[in-house]
Design a protein that fits this description.
Radius of gyration: 23 Å
Low-confidence stretches: none
Distance between the termini: 17 Å
Number of strands: 21
Helix content: 25-40%
Structural class: alpha+beta
Largest sheet: 9 strands, mixed
Shape: globular
Number of domains: 2
Length: 413
């Protein structure tokens, strides 16, 4: 088995691509999905969020929801909206948002290489979210949500990608969020073979986003292997749908924190406690940290610039030296009393795409007492954690732009 391989993608006919393309299933709640899909019968949300086609209040994890998704997928194939390619292909996928451009390879990635950590992880998964993806893939008999992978950039891949991108794309559309999505189909056997070999020579790939989807791919493969007395290892269920971007094109935004109260302290006592571990300076403008070890804090209408004391930064621990860890270990847990940010309802997380004004809004409204802005985690830091077989704290990275659903899906045997 190779690290990646081409596949016969299930995708919209070109004239319907704009009608089909949809945001990822996990960035919208049910009501938001209903609004986005209104008047759009071919939106992929009918497949990825099929509860929108059932009565309000339907449990999105009920058996009828997964069955409805499978029915909607089948109907769109029967109507000729979605068609499967006749031969295995690779696809190039370019995203453009606010002048930032990144181009990745759409391929299926090896489950055995995921299982042996050649495809490296950096997050824990939640069993309930894994279960949801397993049931969705099993019901649809297809993987519709791609895993977002990255690799250390490679000049040979760059040359191949550049050559293909000189050709006319299959799709070139702008979604309703303003992000431009462009797809090229790679059918040439020599190009396919070269891409397969170049990637297979790599030491590893890294999961950037999609830990639950990749874990579900592994579980579905194990289930189907056990049920298949003629298993060979070549079946499509041994691979999961991926889009693979070079590390030098990736964009990670900050992932900020807001907390409901000051853990029983008054403002003066809180600032005094913070000042024991951080240089704390009042400033007159919102603080977007300029580098690692620097944080913004918004409290009672006032911004502060926090700089952690140098001796508190571990030198050799790839997890503990992350800014999200420094803030958690030196302020959020010891001072504010939030020891489990995964489960504690006093803390919430705000993606950097929403801007610093969202932090001010959450505090000014009285909903939250204090907000913290962070410097974005670097991709090198993510890779160092994964290479060490360690796990990052929750909500460490926010990737933009997001991959769309619906442009290419992977049908299983």
């Amino acid at each position: 088995m190779t690290l990646i391989r081409p596949f016969a993608g299930l995708r919209p006919v070109p004239e319907q691509a704009e009608a089909v393309v949809a945001p990822p299933y996990d960035v919208l709640n049910t009501e938001e999905a209903r609004v986005r899909a209104e008047g759009r019968p071919y939106s992929f949300l009918h497949i990825s969020k099929p509860e929108i086609d059932l009565p309000a209040g339907t449990d999105p994890f009920s058996a009828e929801v997964y069955a409805k998704g499978a029915e909607n997928l089948s109907n769109m194939q029967q109507q000729g909206i979605l068609k499967q390619d006749s031969q295995p292909c690779y696809y190039l996928y370019r995203l453009i948002m606010d002048g930032h451009q990144q181009t990745g390879l759409v391929a299926v990635a090896s489950v055995p290489d995921y299982d042996t950590n050649r495809i490296r992880k950096h997050e824990f998964t939640r069993p309930d979210k894994e279960d949801d993806r397993v049931r969705q893939v099993d019901a649809l008999n297809a993987q519709t949500g791609p895993v977002f992978l990255t690799y250390r950039h490679n000049s040979q891949v760059d040359t191949l990608v550049e050559k293909v991108c000189q050709e006319k794309p299959e799709y070139n559309l702008t979604a309703d969020d303003g992000v431009q999505h462009t797809i090229w189909v790679v059918k040439d056997a020599a190009q396919i073979n070269e891409l397969t070999q170049v990637f297979d020579a790599m030491d590893c790939l890294y999961i950037a986003d999609g830990h639950h989807r990749s874990a579900a791919g592994s579980r579905v493969a194990a289930m189907r292997k056990e049920a298949n007395t003629q298993h060979t290892g070549d079946e499509s269920y041994n691979y999961f749908l991926s889009v693979i971007f070079p590390d030098n094109q990736m964009k990670i935004l900050d992932y900020n924190r807001v907390i409901k109260d000051l853990n029983g302290m008054d403002t003066q006592s809180f600032i005094q406690a913070v000042s024991e571990s951080f240089n704390c300076q009042q400033v007159n403008a919102p603080v977007k940290p300029a580098g690692p070890g620097e944080f913004g804090m918004y409290l009672e209408g006032q911004w502060y610039r926090l700089t952690i004391n140098d001796e508190l930064i571990p030198k050799d621990d790839p997890v503990k030296r992350l800014d999200v860890s420094l803030l958690q270990d030196n302020l959020v847990e010891p001072i504010l009393g939030v020891s489990d940010p995964r489960r504690d309802k006093r803390i919430d997380f705000v993606g950097g795409i929403r801007g610093l004004s969202e932090l001010e809004k959450r505090v000014n409204s009285g909903e939250m007492a204090v907000a913290f802005s962070l410097y974005a985690t670097s991709l090198d830091a993510l890779m160092s954690v994964a290479d060490a077989n360690e796990v990052m704290p929750p909500k460490s990275t926010w990737f933009e732009p997001k991959l769309a659903d619906g442009l290419v899906s992977h049908v299983l045997d």
